[in-house]
């Protein structure tokens, strides 16, 4: 059992949170809206994973860097954190691109 992958995802999420906090791109700019968007995205991708697992499109892979803990059949604990991270990164990138495009539009 290893916590390396889970720690990496959590660490990357923390770093993304620092970027978001510094430049107020998503969660630190619109907290309520961001939490709703994160929740919707999380549920969407969790259902997506569960359906794909049920259809046997994919399953849990084996890696020495993973904990081996499953929250459901073929659904590793790390996947929940990865889904949250994926949604958060998407929101932060959207905030960044929106800010850049708004500045370019104002400069013209």
From TrEMBL:
Q: What is this protein called?
A: Lycopene cyclase domain-containing protein
UniProt keyword list:
Carotenoid biosynthesis, Isomerase, Membrane, Transmembrane, Transmembrane helix
**What species is this protein from?**
Aeromicrobium tamlense
**Where in this chain does the entry annotate a coiled-coil region?**
none
UniProt pathway annotation: Carotenoid biosynthesis
Q: Which GO terms describe its molecular function?
A: intramolecular lyase activity; lycopene beta cyclase activity
Q: Where in the cell is it found?
A: Membrane
Q: Which InterPro entries match?
A: Lycopene_cyclase_dom
* Gene Ontology biological process terms from the UniProt entry: carotenoid biosynthetic process
Q: Topology with regard to the membrane?
A: Multi-pass membrane protein
Enumerate the transmembrane spans.
Answer: 6-23, 35-55, 80-101
Cellular component GO terms, alphabetical: membrane
């Amino acid at each position: 059992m290893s916590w390396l992958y889970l720690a990496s995802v959590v660490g990357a999420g923390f770093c993304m949170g620092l970027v978001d906090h510094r430049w107020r791109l998503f969660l630190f700019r619109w907290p309520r809206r961001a939490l709703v968007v994160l929740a919707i995205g999380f549920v969407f991708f969790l259902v997506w994973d569960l359906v794909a697992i049920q259809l046997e499109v994919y399953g849990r892979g084996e890696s020495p860097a993973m904990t081996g803990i499953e929250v459901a059949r073929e659904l590793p604990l790390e996947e929940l954190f990865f889904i949250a991270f994926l949604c958060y990164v998407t929101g932060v990138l959207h905030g960044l691109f929106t800010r850049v495009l708004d500045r370019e539009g104002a400069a013209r």
